[in-house]
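Rotation project, supervised by the postdoc (A.L.). Task for the rotation student: set up a whole-complex structure prediction and record inputs and outputs verbatim in this book. Inputs entered:
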Amino acid sequence: MGLFILRRLGVMILTAICLTFIVFFLTNLHPNLEKLAKTQGEMRMSDEQVERWLANRGYDQPLPIKYGEWLGVWPSKIIETDDGRTYGRCLETDVSIEDTPRFCGVIQGDWGFSTVFRDEVSSIIATRLSLTGKLMFWVMVLMIPSALLIGVLAGMREGSRTDRSLSTLSIATTATPEYVSGVIFIAIFAASASPLNQWLASMDWIEGRTLFKGTATSAMESANFNNFFLPVLTISLYGMGYIARMTRASMAEVMTAQYIRTARLKGVSFPNIVVKHALRNALIAPFTVIMLQIPWLLNGVVIVETLFNYKGFGWVLVQAAGNNDIELLLGVSVVSVIVVLITQLISDIGYVYLNPRISVS
Amino acid sequence: MEPLSWGAIFAGMFTQLIPVWVALIATFTLSIVYKRRLGLYGKLFDSTIGMIGFALVMFWVFVAIFGAMDLILTHDPLSQVSGMKNKGPGTPLRGAEEGDYAYYLLGGDNLARDIFSRVMSGATIVILIAPLATLFAYMVGITLGLPAGYYGGRFDTLLSFVANLVLAFPVILLFYLLVTPEIVNTGLPQYMAIVLFFFPLVFFAILIHTRLKQQPQKNVIWLCAFLIPLTIMYIVTINAPGTKIDVLGPVDFFDPAAGILVVFVSVVFVNSPTVFRIVRGLTLDIKQRDYVLAAQTRGEGAWYIMLWEILPNARGPLIVDFCLRIGYTTILLGTLGFFGLGLPPESPDWGSTINEGRKLLSIYLHPALPPALALLSLVLGLNLLADGLREESLRD
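Outputs recorded:
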């Protein structure tokens, strides 16, 4: 087991390095750098000025060296420009050049500086990630129990009417991407022009003009049901169907097992069979699926945060990518890659741990 | 003129869609009458869910076809009519002339364009790109997945690593990195197209050659019949005037519309690794079977076994996944449109229209809802179709 985890960790690090290098390569293509220079410097710079701007900030070095600097395995270069100013990754305002450390990359814990937000990448990611963490927590709270419930109810009597309707419902939720369900929810529950809201307002049953809020910006400070429910529901709905279908399949398989039939013949009541005998074995497969859904949720998070204007991690990803904010984008990719790979690892280990029939050697 | 009531709006849409209803009824009658002779396709008509899914999918397919033939659209999806900005459903067209359709059936959008026509012509874009891109992803996935599963070893390890690498990327980040105008100017999507679009050529070449190796004459004829048109298509698709890859000049007779190639390439690129993993897994399973061992004993070549023994026996799960994947590709296309990537902003594809409509959603509901419901119904149809196919193929 230890060796297995060690090997997986090795692959993880290799994957993370490859991925960040690809991101690094793509963000450092010359047209992107030119755009960066023009947005950071001045819009109407001549080609020559752009080149000088880039050279002054070390962007003209060979790609592997730049990557090495970012990673922290290559000494960072300190550049003195013609007008006497100095630039360098490691420089800080209150530290003299002699005292500046030679290496300052991700390994040393220095994630760089965001050109869009004019702030340390690490602090941006920390604050935004905690906001997204709040969102994800409530998504999990809503999604997992309801998905398991739907799956178990559908799977315990395979082929019944409950099963058919619940299965169709789960198919429908997997067929609704977040940007569709989000738009529909906003149109029904959060738009003042929606007939439902107009009716509710005319009956004086709601305060204000809408049932829910169409933006979740205020939820960053204080989340409540009113401003946070729609984004949470939108994300959970897309993932819910898939987990429910996996649970249903697993439950249906368990219900045909010999030991369940024995229990029934012994006269155990049906609810007892489901809760005490079937459920535990039926929940092994969904566990893996839930873990593997987390990277997919990340996708939904980006869409929903954009749609509801909730300034979390996904929103930062869009901002960083749209403005070619190289170091912030790299930070974002590192974090998301780590999330993907760790969930994969946990799901593998958890599967082995929960299912004694499988062994890792 | 008075605005239309909701009943009249639906009646108007119904009459506008008459060619689609006729085609749908014809398809269903013919299929149900001959369903016993139609194999798996015929069996689909035994399951209600499958039929509903098939009807939804075929509805949009026919809308796409007749929309491209200009039988359904009431107005030009790109032209703006003054005074129709954000007007509600059923608003009479201002200054309608003889021969114009007198109403905006689903209202006008933020730029005073007819929403009904935009949604219907958006179907053409989606129905054109999504299945084709999925097909290409399948060619790539099959051509790489079969040998990876069959041979195993270093080759497999390397390819699996690359596939996992692409899959570990958040899709939206990948799109942002591939589809921004700056990257498109470097020609990167075109280079990727060179690689990705080459796989169908390889696939068909090997497919034909392995089968007809013993009959050289037939082999040459079939190879020419497939490869010459495909190669021409390959070259003219990738070649585009005014970009990095422009060798043909005036001979280039086919250029995909602006942004379509880029969108296509990125969607194929995102889908291929998953297909690769599925094909690889199926190959690993099937290569242990007796008929594969028998073929090996007969002395058949490795590629013959992969393409003519393993692949046909993996078709069940692959067909089901193909349907699901078209739906997923549709979602991806919508995601691209939602973030305003790839296709030009005036494009009537559903993702872009939703993106446009959501900005004013709290005041005007009608621009965003029709494309959202259209996308939902198509993807739902594909999912139900896949479910029906799975059920029917499991039955025997």
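Student's summary: The first helix of chain A runs from residue 2 to 27.
Supervisor addendum: The CA atoms of residues 191 and 252 of chain A lie 41 Å apart.
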